[in-house]
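Lecture 7 notes: from sequence to structure.
We start with the chain below.
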Amino acid sequence: MTTLKQHLKERKISQQELSDYMGVSRPTVSKKLNAPEIFTAQEVRLISELLKVDETWAFINLFK
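Predicted structure tokens for the same chain:
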């Protein structure tokens, strides 16, 4: 499991909640969670905002 997936699970944020927040379909989020390097900069910002973490920290620690 990727670091981002683990972090979402720990915070009890579902893929559906993440997809609603990002404005994309749940299958798209699922695909991107399996290959986190394909998230765009805007998506990284949104995820950081949702998780209430620093954007730079998130990029370094969650999107590997």
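Points to note: Residues 36 and 63 are 5 Å apart (CA to CA). The radius of gyration is 10 Å.
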